[in-house]
Amino acid sequence: MPSDASAVSSAAAPAADHARLKSGTPEFRKVTRAMFVGGFSVFAMLHGAQPLMPMFSQEFGLSPASASGVVSVATAALAFALIPASILADRLGRKPIMVGGLALVALFTLISAASEGFSQLLFWRALQGMVLAGVPAVAMAYLSEEVEPSSLGYAMGLYIAGNSMGGMSGRLVASALGDMASWRTVMVTLGVFGMCASVMFLKSVPRSRNFAPTPGPWRDLLGTLRRDAAAHLSDPGLRWLFALGFLIMGCFTSTYNYLAYHLAEAPFHLRPALAGAVFMVYLVGPVAATWTGRLADKLGRRQVMWITMLLMLVGVLVTLISHLAAIVVGVVLLTFGFFASHSVVSSWVGRRASHARGLASALYLTFYYLGAGVLGWASGLAWGLDGWSGVAGVLALCLLAGVGIALHLRRIPPPVAA
User: Fold this and answer.
1) Which of 40, 74, 280, 418 is the most interior residue, by most CB within 10 Å?
2) How do the domains of the chain map onto residue ranges?
3) Residues of the chain with pLDDT under 50
4) 414 — phi, psi (to 5°)?
């Protein structure tokens, strides 16, 4: 998936001043390889069900909006579990939460293959999203604590690349296997890979050396959390940034949710494997995020954000042209704009927050994944009314609102340099 993670776990007091991992050493390579595989596997399992939605519609007699539940319930559960997972990691440690989350999501993926009905499948998908939160909620905090500053950017880049490549590969593998076998085979394949990844992760990632559990009673910790969350939600700039996260992820997920249905219709009649090949446009993600990040550093986030949102809007409108090449171009524009927008907003949240930045990032990701769940389902209702034109119309309105929010943010004075 996209850079579906952030440093949502607030840093605890260091246990001791242990030597940190340095780029070029065998231990650094071992850890970053494991983090790449961990991020790759969890997001492959999360997003692998998305291209299978037409198969669920056919087998269980579902509308596209109902079939989108396999994506919506998982992302919504992930959204609500991010902050609790970060709190547990502050108390129980980084590695136990990450290993447990990785192993459990693989286990639940395997079990979901035996679902006797769609409701049962949704139950297991919700559990997958809930336990999956243990990886993105903790991984970046772990790397920040264990890797020396001069090597941290490289380590973070590898982890984020694993997330993006996992989201793309999970969709591609599911599309290809779904063309030859059942969705149950896809789930088993993804689950087995996840189990292997969890074993490698357990053996390769050392226990935290520069972290100590947060002291004090749970009641005091939760009280501080409530106060900090209220402060972030009362900040006018952060509120609008959280709203942008909701919109960009919701529109991005909705596009890929219903694109397979659109390409299976006349005049395209594409098989699942060919329709799934559209996910290859994910490869523009790292380029978009890196290039836009540099541009935002040079020109300012206020000057760039509205342009990236406008690019997403143009991409959606181009997909309304009934020609396969035009649809691919439109999806490329939307995907580029999405990764660019996510890069700008997520960094802007960190700059805007004057304190408790980890919690601010957690709140941003909560709204971000809620957008995937809520808009991913709601746009399916538009599909039922007017097919792809209905979906594109709803997304265009949402993105137009996003452009307006981005322009409004230019007029809000920053409490700190933002």
Assistant:
1) 74
2) 1-215, 228-413
3) 1, 3, 5-16, 417-418
4) -80, 140
- What is the domain class of 1-215 according to CATH? mainly alpha
**CA angle, 236 then 240 then 245, to 5°:** 145
CA 407, 412, 414, 415 torsion: positive or negative?
A: negative
Q: What is the pLDDT of residue 73?
A: 95
Check residue 418 and give its pLDDT. 46
User: Are 208 and 142 contacting, i.e. CB atoms less than 8 angstroms apart?
Assistant: yes
Say if residues 309 and 284 touch (Cβ distance below 8 Å): no
Asked: is 228-413 a CATH 1.20.1250.20 domain? The reply is: yes
Written as one string, the DSSP assignment of 76-129 is HHHHHHHHHHHHHHHHH-HHHHHHHHHHHHHHHHHHHTT-SSHHHHHHHHHHHH
What pLDDT is attached to residue 17? 52
Q: Judge if the upstream peptide bond of residue 413 is cis by omega within 30 degrees of 0.
A: no
What is the Cα 274 distance to its own chain's centre? Answer: 24
Cβ neighbours of residue 55 closer than 8 Å, sequence gap 6 or more:
178, 182, 183, 272
Please give the pLDDT value at position 287.
77
Structure tokens at 394: 């709803």
pLDDT in tens, 57-106: 999 999 999 999 999 999 999 999 988 887 888 778 888 999 999 999 99
Output the CA–CA distances (angstroms, integers) from residue 191 to 102, 128, 185, 207, 306, in the order listed. 10, 11, 10, 25, 40
* Three-state SS at 147: strand
Give the separation between CA 292 and CA 309, rounded to whole angstroms.
12
pLDDT at 7: 43
